[in-house]
Amino acid sequence: MPELTAHELLTTTRSVRKRLDLERPVDPALVRDCLETALQAPSGSNAQRWHWLVLTDPEVRREVGALYRKSCRAYLESPHAAGRLYADDPQRSKVQARVNDSVAYLADRMGDVPVLVVPCLQLPSEELPEGNQAGLWGSILPAAWSYMLAARSRGLGTAWTTLHLRYEKEVAEVLGLPSNVRQAALIPTAHYTGDTFKPARRTPLSEVLHENGW
């Protein structure tokens, strides 16, 4: 894979769903290499309470995939589903429909993705602390995104999803997680088909930028 500039990497790391190669194995060393990069991310007070579950066992992936599919079906039927957003905007609704379709596609195949990565935080107690949730999750989300960027730079596709957390306890039982370990996301990881990614169309900065106040 050609080396990407920082700008290219940041603007072309997309959520890969339909283009994940479900047949091609992923070298475990490649995933470990990406996780080594992820460990360089910042965490609150430099606590580094993160843990990473790498799921490659077919039966474990199947069980997690089944729970993900169950949750995703409920999501797709809800008013918050991607395909129901911006229905009054003809251009944007087309994009949302494609996103909705790709989400449904992955939901039926999550258990077939060669590698599933679950970033977690180990907390001092079983309960989430009150108050500053941004500080808590800010200690794992940058590292998870670094993992996804590292994967992109090494020819792997990923997608960020948290839909499985509707059944967080059930997934935790499948994975044997201690009661004080909380999951942050589920990141399917695989080689991808095709060879092109481009920046996505986004809301113009002028519409979301606020200087010195709202």
UniProtKB/TrEMBL annotation:
Which segments constitute the Nitroreductase domain? 12-182
Q: Does the keyword Hydrolase apply?
A: no
Alphabetically list the UniProt keywords.
Oxidoreductase
- One Pfam annotation reads Nitroreductase
Describe the family membership recorded for this protein in Swiss-Prot or TrEMBL: Belongs to the nitroreductase family.
PANTHER family documented for this protein = NAD(P)H NITROREDUCTASE YDGI-RELATED, NADH DEHYDROGENASE_NAD(P)H NITROREDUCTASE XCC3605-RELATED
What is the protein name given in its UniProt record? Nitroreductase family protein
What is the species of this protein?
A: Streptomyces marispadix
